[in-house]
């Protein structure tokens, strides 16, 4: 997954109403900054830190906003506008519980629960209105249900130690937070991409690429390209990299696809999955207009992994269980009876056909039937192989061609490998060795 370069927030003019991930404080008047809690929950890691005790800090303190101010660092963007940022705690919160944040609603919530269920982990929620749950198989871990964007925020603030979110959300809200690490980058749900949606008609009729969009003469400081999106941080980095300066980012809480037709924006930047919503609203994708692919990921706080006893072992178990399930999902187990002079003879026939070699070669077993005296005698061989689901039909045909009969195709539940690559990568990133994890 790509990591996009940073952009100086001051290069951006005229931001609209902030969305879930908007750079909310940038163009707000100083008087609205310290008193607005929503701003405190939207860190701006790109902004420089001002020296303590600037005029705004003092005046807000005098108005009794001391508590909020003591939570904030002062920062100023290139326009001289003061903003605020919630500092990350320097040390871990003093708690003994280990916490995992999961999306509480929407498509991510359902898919996440399914993943746990498929990985033989049951999530027990005492009642639907409660936000905390338990996993009986991992009693040391508390589950906290949160909105997807809050999962990322709470990870950043140390309220939770692990979380499942879409990569898009992580990239928008936390990719530059060095404490956070993607532990599993492909949970195989929530697949979508973040892409520009450009009107099919009007002045955009012939615009089919980013290059063409950037070269349109219309975009000036007075008439910037108006982009409605909930992904302001990603959008800023993207347009900066594309070299398009005259852009105005705007926000909406939903139905972004309607904005160009309503005239409130020129184009949109939003998630696309099937592409139906874009099409139904007369919008198109353009070449170079896809910013990233996304799917569900498991994220962790490095600090928590290193310092909270038992957390790394839990992450190890989660990676193993998820990977065992996700790998098995891609395969069928196939068993076929085969005539032959020996196990090697049958194995040779299978190994010669691409797609019939199984994971590490076929297993060949004896199949017995009864003779006239009722005694078991060797009859044929049974070959067992794993076949990718995508190629199941061609594999069965190939098996039959080399003498396979009575072909059984069975679902696989788990494939546990020795040590998942993702676990090894995590240990490397944390500069740990397996022996360090008890
Ligand atoms: N059309 C889609 N197809 C597949 N995945 C999607 C799609 N739309 C969103 N997602 C994934 O689901 C995540 C959550 O999206 P969803 O729309 O359920 O929540 P949200 O509206 O952003 O959250 P909330 O309403 O809690 O603020 C997104 O961050 C993305 O990773
Ligand atoms: O390419 P498609 O398959 O049509 O999916 C894309 C749509 O899905 C998401 O919206 P969602 O359905 O989650 O509704 P929302 O606008 O309330 O977020 C996204 O914001 C797009 O509008």
Automatic annotation (TrEMBL):
Pathway: Amino-acid biosynthesis; L-histidine biosynthesis; L-histidine from 5-phospho-alpha-D-ribose 1-diphosphate: step 1/9. The keyword Transferase applies. Keywords: Amino-acid biosynthesis, Glycosyltransferase, Histidine biosynthesis, Transferase. Residues 147-321 form the ATP phosphoribosyltransferase catalytic domain. Pfam families: HisG, HisG_C. It is an enzyme of class 2 (transferase). Residues 1-20, 73-96 are annotated as: Disordered. It comes from the Eukaryota. It catalyses: 1-(5-phospho-beta-D-ribosyl)-ATP + diphosphate = 5-phospho-alpha-D-ribose 1-diphosphate + ATP. Its EC number is 2.4.2.17. Residues 328-413 form the Histidine biosynthesis HisG C-terminal domain. The keyword Transferase applies. This is ATP phosphoribosyltransferase.
């Amino acid at each position: 997954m790509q990591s996009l370069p940073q952009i100086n927030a001051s290069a951006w003019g005229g931001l609209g109403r902030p969305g879930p991930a908007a750079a909310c404080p940038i163009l707000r008047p100083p008087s609205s900054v310290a008193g607005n809690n929503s701003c405190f929950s939207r860190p701006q890691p790109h902004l420089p830190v001002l020296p303590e005790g600037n005029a705004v800090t003092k005046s807000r303190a005098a108005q009794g906003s001391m508590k909020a101010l003591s939570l904030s660092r002062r920062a100023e963007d290139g326009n001289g506008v003061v903003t605020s940022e919630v500092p990350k705690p320097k040390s871990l919160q003093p708690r003994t519980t280990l916490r995992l944040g999961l999306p509480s609603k929407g498509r991510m919530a359902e898919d996440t629960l399914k993943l746990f269920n498929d990985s033989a982990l049951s999530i027990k929620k005492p009642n639907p209105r409660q936000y905390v749950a338990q996993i009986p198989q991992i009693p040391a871990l508390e589950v906290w249900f949160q909105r997807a964007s809050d999962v990322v925020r709470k990870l950043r603030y140390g309220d939770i130690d692990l979380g499942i979110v879409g990569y898009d959300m992580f990239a928008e809200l936390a990719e530059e937070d060095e404490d956070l690490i993607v532990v599993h980058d492909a949970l195989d749900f929530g697949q979508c991409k973040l892409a520009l949606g450009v009107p099919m008609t009007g002045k955009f009729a012939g615009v089919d690429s980013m290059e063409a969009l950037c070269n349109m003469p219309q975009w000036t400081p007075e008439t910037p390209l108006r982009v409605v999106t909930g992904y302001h941080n990603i959008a800023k980095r993207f347009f900066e990299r594309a070299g398009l300066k005259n852009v105005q980012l705007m926000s909406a809480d939903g139905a972004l696809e309607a904005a160009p037709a309503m005239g409130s924006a020129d184009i949109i930047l939003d998630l696309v999955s099937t592409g139906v919503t874009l099409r139904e609203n007369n919008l198109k994708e353009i070449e170079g207009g896809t910013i990233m692919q996304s799917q569900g990921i498991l994220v962790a706080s490095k600090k928590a992994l290193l310092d909270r006893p038992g957390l790394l072992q839990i992450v190890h178990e989660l990676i193993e269980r998820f990977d065992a399930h996700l790998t098995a999902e891609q395969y069928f187990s196939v068993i076929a009876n085969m005539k032959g002079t020996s196990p090697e003879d049958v194995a040779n026939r299978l190994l010669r056909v691409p797609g019939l070699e199984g994971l590490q070669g076929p297993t060949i077993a004896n199949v017995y039937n009864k003779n006239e005296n009722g005694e078991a005698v060797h009859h044929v061989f049974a070959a067992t192989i794993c076949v990718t689901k995508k190629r199941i039909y061609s594999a069965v045909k190939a098996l039959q061609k080399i003498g396979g009969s009575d072909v059984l195709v069975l679902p696989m539940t788990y494939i546990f490998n020795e040590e998942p690559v993702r676990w090894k990568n995590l240990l490397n990133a944390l500069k740990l060795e397996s022996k360090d994890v008890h």
